[in-house]
């Protein structure tokens, strides 16, 4: 499974990059706004830190506007992936970009039919939003399972990029249902390391070592 970090904060990306387990980065307009910087600045800097797919989202809502932005963003770096919303215009833009060999990440996916449309349009990634479905009392993980089944039934190669991951249990369940990629905020990746028995075991080992060598 590939791990992406979901943030527009370059310092978080630098820290996570040191762990050697981050394969790519996703951003969205809200995350970029939180950074207080422009998208072009942030994305170009991220591309210097992580050598992997870096998603940058378009703002336009019509197909021509999306394509105009996408072709501009695609010039920033070879690793940039164009993030498009799952709307009629987004799917149409995705089909055009796919034909042009430009990588895409279709975002804001909340149903397996939407994921099917993205795959038919040649999307590189589909981003189902787990946490936001859970927030309204739906089962986000069930959506990932359904998309996995649909893509496997028909041999689609679009990668399932589990998004809106809020905690470590989401990640654990994503691995069990076969998501290809998980994009997680810094604090969730950090939480994956933590286990009370690891901490307890290590302090016992260190105390025993200190006693034996005193
Ligand atoms: C994914 O690409 C999105 O940026 C992100 O995962 C959304 O997460 P949220 O629902 O926690 O805002």
Mean pLDDT: 98
The arrangement of helices and strands along the chain is EHEHHEHEHEHEHHEHEHH
CATH topology: TIM Barrel
Number of helices: 11
According to DSSP, the number of beta strands is 8
Number of self-contained structural domains: 1
CATH architecture: Alpha-Beta Barrel
Strand content: 15-25%
Helix content: 40-55%
Looking across the biggest beta sheet, what order are the strands in? Answer: 1-2-3-4-5-6-7-8
Identify the overall geometry: globular
CATH homology-level superfamily? Aldolase class I
Characterize the main sheet. Answer: 8 strands, parallel, barrel
Radius of gyration based on Cα positions: 19 Å
Structural class: alpha/beta
Bound molecules: erythose-4-phosphate
Under CATH at level 1, the class stands as Alpha Beta
Contiguous runs where pLDDT drops below 50 for at least 5 residues? none
Brief sketch in words of this structure:
The protein is built from eleven helices and eight strands. It is α/β, with parallel strands linked by helices and 214 residues long.
Features:
alpha/beta; TIM Barrel; 8-stranded parallel beta barrel; 8 strands; globular; binds erythose-4-phosphate
Explain what this protein looks like in three dimensions.
The protein is α/β, with parallel strands linked by helices. The protein contains 11 helices and 8 strands. It has one domain: TIM Barrel. Helix content is 54%, strand content 17%. An 8-stranded parallel β-barrel has the order 1-2-3-4-5-6-7-8, surrounded by 6 helices. The mean pLDDT is 98. The site of erythose-4-phosphate has 12 residues, from α7.
């Amino acid at each position: 499974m590939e791990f992406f970090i979901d943030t527009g904060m370059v310092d978080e990306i630098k820290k996570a990059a040191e762990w050697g387990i981050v394969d790519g980065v996703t951003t969205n307009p809200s995350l970029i706004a939180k950074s207080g910087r422009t998208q072009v600045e942030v994305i170009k800097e991220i591309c210097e830190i992580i050598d992997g797919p870096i998603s940058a989202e378009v703002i336009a809502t019509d197909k021509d506007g999306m394509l105009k932005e996408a072709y501009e963003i695609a010039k920033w770096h070879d690793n940039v992936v164009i993030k498009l919303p799952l709307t009629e215009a987004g799917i149409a833009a995705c089909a055009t970009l796919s034909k042009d060999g430009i990588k895409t990440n279709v975002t804001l996916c909340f149903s397996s039919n939407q994921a099917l449309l993205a795959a038919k349009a040649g999307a590189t990634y589909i981003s189902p939003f787990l946490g936001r479905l859970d927030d309204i009392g739906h089962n986000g993980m069930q959506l990932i399972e359904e998309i996995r089944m649909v893509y496997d039934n028909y041999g689609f190669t679009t990668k399932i990029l589990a998004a809106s991951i809020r905690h470590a249990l989401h990640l654990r369940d994503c691995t069990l249902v076969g998501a290809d990629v998980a994009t997680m905020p810094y604090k969730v990746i950090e939480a994956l390391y933590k286990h009370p028995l690891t901490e307890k075991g290590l302090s016992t080992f260190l105390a025993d070592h200190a006693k034996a060598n005193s």
